[in-house]
Structure formats: C-alpha cells, structure tokens
TrEMBL record:
Family matches, as Gene3D superfamilies: Glutaredoxin
Protein name as annotated: Thioredoxin domain-containing protein
Domain Thioredoxin: 4-117
Top-level taxon in the UniProt lineage: Eukaryota
Transmembrane segments annotated in the record for this chain: none
Organism encoding this protein: Cyclostephanos tholiformis
Recorded family membership: Belongs to the protein disulfide isomerase family.
Keywords assigned by UniProt, alphabetized: Signal
Keyword Signal: yes
Cellular component terms (Gene Ontology): cytoplasm; endomembrane system
Length: 205
C-alpha cells in the first residue's frame, strides 16, 4: 500500500510513445492527459503531483503518471481518443477506462486505493469475468492479420468520430459568430431608435 500524502514537490512521471510500454508494463495505471495552457489542468496539478508522489516507487504494480498532449505525448492522446483536458483514465494500459470522479486529492486518492489493483488482461485471465475472458480468448484465436484489420477498423471509427466532432465544433463557432453579430445589430438598432430615452420618459410618467 502506498503511503499517504497531501502535498509534494514531486512531478508525475511523463509518458511518451518512447517509454509508455516499458513504464506501464504489468501495472494498473491512473493517467492524466493534459495541456499546459489548460486552466483546469493547472488547478489540479498540485493534487495530481501529490497523488503521483504517494505511488512513486510503488512495487505492487500501481502507477500514477501523465501525458502532455501538446508535446511528445501528442500521438498517445490521439491513440486514446483524448478530445478535452484534463482527461483522466485508469486501468490496464491497453484498455484504459474513463475516470469520472472528483478531482480533489482526497477523492482521487480514495479512488486509487480502491481501484489501482490488478485488472483483467491477457496476463490476468483468472480475474476476468466470463464475458471479458471470452473476448480475450476470441482475440487470441485470431490471426495477426485478422486482429490487425479489426484494430485498424476500430481506429478508423475513432478518427472518423473525431473528424466529425471537430467539423461540428467549427460549425458551432461560425454560427456563434453569426448570432453574436445579429444580437449586436439588434442592440444597435434599438439604441438608434431612442430606446433609452423611451424608458426615461416612461419612468417619468
């Protein structure tokens, strides 16, 4: 069990494509995907580093780390479908799950204590439920070419979804600009029509 801490000057291990597999191998992980300019990321930085310090040097297969989506970790963020910051994920490094809990040190530490345990994986089939074990066995029975084709198809779906997301966001930005201009034009027209004087006279009656 990792030691308790509420503050630390330590910095979480930064994961990149070059070290990801080596650092996360055989571990249950808790990873923060972030951008340095992100205000929400900055607000949890101290608590995240404190949490990482708690598990620094842990020998029971637990890891708290982070990925900078604007630097060397950009391709990892794309691989894991990161579209907002900060995004926290946890579990088996090859099958990360979204963390939707609180962002305070106490909440994240409590979650880590309860969940950073060995997860269902190829190396831990004995702890898998029947459905996930059957899925892993199915994948293991497939050829490399078959499994690669299936993985490529799923990655294609992710890229397509991300492309649609960004396209729709651009449309929303454009529509926002149009609506903002319409509102400003209406306000300007009302002012030109003497609305202020109208209300002043009305109050005097």
């Amino acid at each position: 069990m990792a030691s308790s801490s509420s503050s630390s000057s330590a910095v979480a291990i930064e994961l990149t494509p070059a070290n990801f597999h080596e650092v996360t191998d055989d571990k249950t992980v808790f990873i923060k995907f972030f951008a340095p300019w992100c205000g929400h990321c900055q607000s949890i930085e101290d608590d995240w580093n404190a949490l990482a310090a708690d598990f620094d040097g842990d020998t029971s297969g637990q890891l708290v780390a982070e990925v900078d989506c604007t630097a060397d970790g950009e391709s990892l963020c794309s691989e894991f479908g990161i579209t907002g910051y900060p995004t926290l994920k946890w579990g088996d490094p090859s099958d990360l799950r979204d963390y939707d809990g609180g962002r305070s040190y106490e909440e994240m530490r409590r979650f880590a204590d309860e969940n950073l345990k060995p997860q269902c994986s190829i190396k831990n089939l004995d702890i898998c439920d029947d459905d996930r074990r059957a899925l892993i066995v199915r994948y293991l029975d497939m050829s490399v070419d078959e499994l690669s084709a299936m993985a490529d198809a799923e990655e294609g779906k992710l890229r397509e979804a991300e492309g649609r997301f960004h396209a729709e966001v651009e449309k929303l930005h454009a529509r926002y600009g149009e609506l903002s201009k319409e509102k400003d034009d209406v306000i300007a027209g009302i002012k030109m029509a003497g609305f202020g004087l109208m209300k002043s006279v009305l109050r005097s009656m």
